[in-house]
UniProtKB/TrEMBL annotation:
Designated name of the protein: malate synthase
Reaction catalysis annotation: glyoxylate + acetyl-CoA + H2O = (S)-malate + CoA + H(+)
Record's keyword annotation contains Lipoprotein: no
Domain of life of the organism encoding this protein: Eukaryota
Pfam families attached to this UniProt entry: MS_C, MS_TIM-barrel
GO function term, MF aspect, one: malate synthase activity
Ranges for domain Malate synthase TIM barrel: 176-421
Active site per the UniProt annotation: 180 (proton acceptor), 462 (proton donor)
GO BP: any one term: glyoxylate cycle
Keywords associated with the record: Glyoxylate bypass, Transferase, Tricarboxylic acid cycle
Residue ranges of domain Malate synthase C-terminal in the record: 429-544
Taxonomic source organism: Oncorhynchus mykiss (Rainbow trout)
EC number(s) stated in the UniProt entry for this protein: 2.3.3.9
Length: 572
């Protein structure tokens, strides 16, 4: 029997607001060892604030999720393709409107640190002391949303904003925190309001704003956010309403909250101007990233043969027309509306020996790819490796002028729907298939350990690369694609056979030394095969895992004091 704490009739007069009605919220008790963090975050006032926030917007959240389903169903039944919306044409054709200028600390966004899971205290402190302009404090792609990780992550942000880390700079002098709550597809299992699990992004956003929003504003360091997986301007409108509600509740001026929207879906690429328009008082610009965006093509059109995506390890990069057009349009859209345009994350890890040939090769590779983005007009991008911050900042200084590139309007550019929907030519290689299998399994294994990202073959992998990996394997099975190497057809049988082949390497990568660790890896492989063999494509791997009994039971055992990653026996 899971014990629940019930919070009833909590009243709080701080922050210029107080609830009008008694509330009932059900909340899981603290994970072992986090009792102090739990008491700090889950105060009576913060719980009342979150209950009111969820009550105000829960129905709207359900509505936008149903609209996603409706839109996908329409595309499937009609065979239509997305295009620029006629209803919102007046917004796009009106040259007069601009987003509100961002604060001074956001004007220069050359290099942010990405995939920074704040539950990792050591790396979080290292990043706070780095020369980066900003930190993507990630509760989404680079984070596994266990109860432990969410509480620890929010608590570490609380400590940073309240200047409680003795070896870190004050928040006004540290890189700006770009707080990234979970996306709309995620729920918080450990908290219920009015008998329903709380939407994950409202949980993260609510606690972060209650505890840190006013202090960040007063120190001219926020509150700033990244918004993940926004698919339409209606979702941007919902976020804008949440911001307005929160500013009023906490006594902040309108426009205090700023947010960068990640354009990670092919449908949102056709609504970038509308998304900026809906958030124009709160916009910190738009961001583009290669892998979630590419995976969205399989998500929305994967059953159509015309949208067969070739091997990402060989044929998919930002130089291909569909991705280059997406980045060009994002830069043009942002700059003509006075907004910042930022690029994706360099996932490569630098070897430790700076004098070695591998180090020089890795740095040259990152430099070449990021120079393409700078020349396209982006105002900044992300890196994972802290050692890349200064080389990439120097790259910006060499090839751009000023704090940003908003003067580059790209008026000569015309991007058509055909450009955005043009699949690159290419096939499927045995290497690419095995690589995708490995990344998918390793990601699930990481989640079963409570980790949101991992390292493989010299780079960091997170849910974005796991999404594209499992999406491609699913699509290649569905369309019975032939391998370039030997003309074998990609089938369930072949994928199962190759999964067994790669397990030897993966045991080394994950350092399996015990029966429990090997059992967990085998369970991850079985779950991966289950996902890629589904008749209907699971929309998000993270949603699938977050609702899966195997993952939930492994976290429940950890919550109850068992070993991290305890899992049921594998099916493979």
């Amino acid at each position: 029997m899971i014990s629940l704490h019930r919070v009833e009739a909590c009243y709080c007069n701080c922050n210029n607001y107080g609830p009008q009605d008694p509330i009932t919220m059900e909340l899981e008790p603290s994970p072992p060892g986090l009792e102090a963090e739990y008491r700090t975050i889950f105060t009576a006032g913060s719980l009342v604030f979150l209950q009111e926030l969820v009550s105000a917007f829960d129905e709207e959240v359900d509505k936008i999720l149903r609209l996603r389903i409706s839109r996908k169903t329409h595309l499937d039944l009609s065979g239509d393709l997305p295009g620029f919306c006629e209803v919102t044409a007046p917004v796009r054709s009106d040259p007069s409107w601009r987003v509100r200028p961002v604060p001074q600390r956001l004007q220069r966004r050359h290099v942010d640190v990405g995939d920074l899971a704040p539950c990792d205290t050591q790396r979080f402190i290292q990043a706070l002391s780095s020369p980066a302009q900003g930190l993507q404090v990630d509760f989404d792609d680079g984070n596994c949303p266990t109860y432990h990780n969410q509480i620890k992550g929010i608590y570490n942000v609380y400590r940073a904003v309240h200047n409680q880390f003795p070896n870190a700079p004050k928040i006004s002098q540290a890189p700006v925190l770009m707080l990234r709550p979970r996306a709309w597809n995620m729920v918080e299992h450990n908290m219920m309001v009015k008998g329903k699990e709380v939407p994950g992004p409202l949980c993260d956003f609510g606690f972060l704003m209650f505890h840190c929003g006013k202090l960040l504003f007063d120190s001219e360091s926020g509150p700033f956010f990244y918004l993940s997986k926004v698919e339409s301007y209606m979702e941007a409108r919902l976020w804008n309403n949440i911001f307005l509600w929160t500013e009023q509740k906490l006594g902040l001026p309108v426009g205090s909250i700023k947010a960068t929207v990640l354009i990670e879906n092919v449908l949102s690429a056709f609504e970038m101007e509308e998304i900026l328009y809906e958030l124009k008082d709160h916009s910190a610009g738009l961001n583009c990233g290669i892998w979630d965006y590419s995976a969205s093509f399989v998500n929305k059109f994967g059953h159509r043969g015309a949208f067969l995506l070739p091997d990402r390890s060989k044929y998919v990069n930002m130089e291909k027309l569909f991705l280059r057009s997406y980045m060009d349009l994002l830069v043009q859209t942002c700059h003509r509306r006075g907004a910042l345009a930022t690029g994706g994350m360099a996932a490569l890890l630098l070897p430790q020996d700076r004098d070695s040939a591998p180090y020089r090769a890795a740095l040259a590779n990152v430099t070449r790819l990021k120079l393409l983005e700078i020349k396209a007009g982006v105002d900044g991008f992300m890196v994972y490796d802290l050692g890349l911050i200064e080389p990439m900042q120097k790259l910006f200084q060499l090839h751009s002028q000023g704090d940003n590139q908003m003067h580059q309007l790209r008026d000569d550019l015309t991007v058509t729907p055909d450009d955005l929907l043009c699949m690159p030519a290419g096939g499927v290689t045995l290497y690419g298939l095995k690589y995708n299998i490995a990344v998918g399994i390793l990601f699930i294994d990481a989640w079963l350990k409570g980790k949101g990202h991992f390292f493989y073959r010299g780079q960091v992998e997170d849910s974005a690369t796991a999404e594209i990996s499992r999406s491609q394997v699913w699509q290649w099975i569905r369309h019975q694609t032939q391998l370039e190497d030997d003309s074998r057809v990609v089938t369930r049988g072949l994928v199962t056979e190759l999964t067994q082949e790669v397990m030897g390497e993966l045991k080394v990568v994950t350092r399996c030394h015990t029966v429990r660790e090997e059992q967990r890896l085998l369970t991850a492989a079985a779950m991966f095969l289950e996902v890629v063999q589904k008749r209907d494509f699971p929309e998000f791997l993270t949603t699938y895992l977050n609702l899966d009994h195997t993952f939930l039971s492994s976290q429940a055992k950890r919550h109850e004091g068992g070993a991290a990653g305890d899992v049921p026996r594998p099916k493979l």
